[in-house]
Amino acid sequence: xxxxxxxxxxxxxxxxxxxxxxxxxxxxxxxxxxxxxxxxxxxxxxxxxxxxxxxxxxxxxxxxxxxxxxxxxxxxxxxxxxxxxxxxxxxxxxxxxxxxxxxxxxxxxxxxxxxxxxxxxxxxxxxxxxxxxxxxxxxxxxxxxxxxxxxxxxxxxxxxxxxxxxxxxxxxxxxxxxxxxxxxxxxxxxxxxxxxxxxxxxxxxxxxxxxxxxxxxxxxxx
Length: 222
What we know:
- By secondary structure, the chain is of the alpha/beta class.
- It has helices at about 5-15, 30-35, 50-55, 75-80, 90-105, 125-135, 160-180, 200-205, 215, and strands spanning about 20-25, 40-45, 65, 80-90, 110-115, 145-150, 190, 210.
- The model has no long low-confidence stretch (mean pLDDT about 95).
């Protein structure tokens, strides 16, 4: 199937209100242009250098989401391009992103990354850490950043009950934050979770953004 057919097939299955992030890391610009021609507008990149290289080659209405682990020394590189940084995994990174956005007079949306997977390689706040940071006011008074929700990755496993339970944990934490710390802020509404192998389960547990790469573009060319 072509990229256009893949996008059409996936978007036809997504409930209303759930948006597709086309994960384009390691794919050549021609494939992104093909996806754009098929109507795709949100693209997700994992590496700062790749995002900074691809963004100027794509139309200006593309919405770039940075979805990988963001090293502090790379924040400045993506700031002119990223509309959303999905992988805010510490209060220090949040403050740095706010400072870098202010430096170039930009505004950026961010998601707080929650660590629920059973794999130590994945980063993010624990549930306890994110609730503690919220209670201490770490997520307020940001001049150039809006926190619009949460992001998470489930454990890479064939045990879909475990995946479902991790996604449920993300949703529960999102609700706690929304009701206790973002009450009345309609911008706090996104839950980014679910990839090619588990996105239908993510949607069942409240995902509003799904990050799909392989099912759109095929296997990556490293």
